[in-house]
Backbone:
């Protein structure tokens, strides 16, 4: 059976620590901090640039760019290497959202490679027999949590439209590295140590740990011949080698035969997966155009709403308590709307245009008190073609993701956020790669207490809501100015907002933007990163009525600034292992 190919070129859109006793320390994140890199300057280039979460992936991307490859060619090479060297965050067993900018025509295209729920799923997928949501650890590391992977289908679709080099060539760096082996880094070792061998299903346990159950040490050369064989097949046969045949059978077998909560994915689910081209979500900020991913991601809308709310307020040329307060209050309003209205737009009516409507934004902005924090923002009623009545959200996201930013020699750009959800996904390994646990991004409850349907409820074939926010920012002239994005679960939205404000309002260079302390609100406490200079603002934020939560905020912001003279400036988040490389 030949897998049906998606339609091409549909839906294109053109664009011309000294902490007060009252501060709460949050629990460590599932994909936690493992030590920051030393202070370093921005990297500059004049021809092309790649910024990824691992040096080997950045090197592979740069090699493809040097060989005349396009931005999407380089992104494909980087993703294949990340599958090997950063398996905790992303890979071919997961999904992705891709923003592509075509420099010559100033065209922005967005590709949806989000995972889908199997056709046999029901809205009670994550409820027990009594109708109570399953315990989070029980559901998240199980066959029940695995969605149909979409990253390869999305990359293939983008390559058909924007690729220059042959598909097979883009897999060679990862294949060579998988066969020769790569040195285990401190971050991978640290996360494995933290989780322990018993957290993994047998195949993954045997790969990541020795016979005594100890994780491979830093510097250990880890080979993955199974992944090399898998990538060779996909390189030679295309994604059909993944979605049909032996690899697909092994995926289904692994999902259906897990030790805990077997899933119901079938071969038909894999064969029928289709990546989609969607319209970008674009908003205005400081005379710029900011474009992101639309539903099923909430990232583009929430970032866009936050910036639109801030656009009518001066937040100052440097970080201050006033700036942090106003940003957090805008984020509260954006998250309130996001939680109520955003889901897979193929299944629920998302009032995306209404959420960014100028009059609606102005009415929401009026709710921000410049001197006093609101405890919790309520969702508004954005204008919509038909009334939208959704229940109060009950979704939860874990941060286990990666981001790729690339600009090629022709001025094309890719901003790609890619994920297997929480660290190491479902911890199920098939043929050398890990499967995602993305379906736990759905609300476990289909309805709220009032019986209203939740927008992000589970449904067959539906894509779970995401916070991934790959972003492109354009100057008033239409020229590309910023390429950025970050991992971090629902905190991605504040991380990307911080990046844009840092680059535009505070005029920081790319690396300084990535270095900034993390902060923001997800319509709850004011969250701020421990051990950074931002802690100095806590007393004044408390005076404004903010409840403060201090803890690790493990972003992974990878950013490229394109200067008016064409010079490229790149920065990679010091909280992870990434680098920017350029020529």
Residues:
């Amino acid at each position: 059976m030949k897998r049906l190919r998606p339609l091409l070129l549909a839906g294109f859109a053109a664009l011309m620590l000294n902490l007060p006793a009252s501060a709460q320390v949050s629990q460590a994140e599932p994909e936690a901090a493992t030590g920051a890199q030393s202070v370093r300057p921005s990297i500059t280039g004049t021809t092309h640039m790649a910024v990824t979460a691992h040096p080997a992936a950045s090197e592979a991307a740069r090699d493809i760019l040097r060989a005349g490859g396009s931005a999407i060619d380089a992104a494909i090479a980087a993703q294949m290497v990340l599958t090997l060297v950063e398996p905790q965050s992303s890979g071919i067993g997961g999904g992705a959202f891709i923003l592509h900018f075509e420099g010559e025509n100033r065209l922005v295209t967005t590709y949806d490679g989000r995972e889908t729920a199997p056709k046999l799923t029901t809205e009670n997928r994550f409820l027990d027999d009594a109708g109570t949501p399953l315990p989070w650890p029980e559901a998240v590391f199980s066959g029940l949590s695995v969605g149909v992977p979409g990253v390869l289908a999305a990359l293939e679709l983008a390559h058909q439209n924007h690729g220059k080099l042959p598909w097979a060539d883009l897999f060679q760096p990862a294949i060579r590295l998988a066969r020769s082996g790569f040195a285990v880094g401190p971050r991978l070792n640290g996360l494995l140590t933290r989780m322990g061998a018993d957290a993994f299903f047998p195949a993954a346990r045997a790969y990541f740990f020795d016979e005594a159950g100890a994780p491979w040490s830093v510097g250990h050369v880890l080979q993955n011949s199974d992944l090399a064989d898998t990538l060779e097949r996909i390189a030679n046969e295309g994604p059909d080698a993944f979605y049909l045949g032996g690899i697909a059978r092994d995926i289904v077998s692994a999902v259906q035969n897990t030790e805990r909560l077997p899933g119901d994915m079938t071969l038909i689910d894999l064969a029928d997966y289709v990546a989609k081209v969607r319209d970008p979500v674009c908003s205005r900020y400081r005379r710029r155009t900011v474009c992101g991913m639309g539903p099923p991601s909430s990232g583009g809308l929430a970032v866009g709403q936050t910036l639109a709310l801030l656009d009518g307020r001066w937040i100052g040329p440097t970080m201050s308590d006033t700036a942090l307060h106003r940003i957090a209050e805008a984020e509260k309003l954006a998250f309130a709307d996001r939680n109520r209205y955003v889901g897979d737009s193929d299944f629920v009516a998302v009032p995306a245009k209404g959420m960014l409507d100028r009059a609606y934004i102005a009415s929401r902005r009026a709710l921000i008190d410049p001197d006093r924090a609101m405890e919790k923002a309520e969702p508004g009623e954005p204008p919509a073609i038909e009334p939208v009545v959704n229940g109060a959200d009950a979704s939860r996201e874990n941060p286990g993701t990666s981001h790729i930013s690339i600009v090629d020699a022709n001025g094309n750009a890719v901003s790609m956020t890619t994920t297997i959800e929480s660290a190491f996904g479902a911890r199920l390994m098939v043929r050398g790669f890990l499967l995602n646990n993305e379906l736990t991004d759905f609300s476990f409850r289909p309805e709220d207490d009032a019986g209203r349907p939740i927008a992000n409820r589970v449904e067959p074939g539906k894509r779970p809501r995401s916070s991934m926010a790959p972003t492109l920012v354009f100057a008033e002239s239409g020229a590309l100015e910023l390429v950025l994005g970050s991992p971090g679960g629902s905190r991605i939205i504040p991380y990307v907002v911080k990046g844009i404000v840092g680059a535009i309002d505070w005029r920081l260079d790319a690396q300084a933007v990535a270095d900034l302390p993390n902060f923001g609100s997800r319509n709850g406490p004011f969250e701020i990163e421990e051990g950074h200079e931002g802690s100095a603002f806590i007393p004044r934020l408390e005076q404004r009525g903010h409840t403060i939560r201090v803890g690790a905020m493990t972003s992974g912001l990878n950013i490229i600034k394109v200067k008016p003279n064409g010079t490229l400036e790149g920065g990679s988040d010091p909280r992870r292992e990434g680098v920017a490389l350029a020529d």
In short: The radius of gyration is 22 Å.
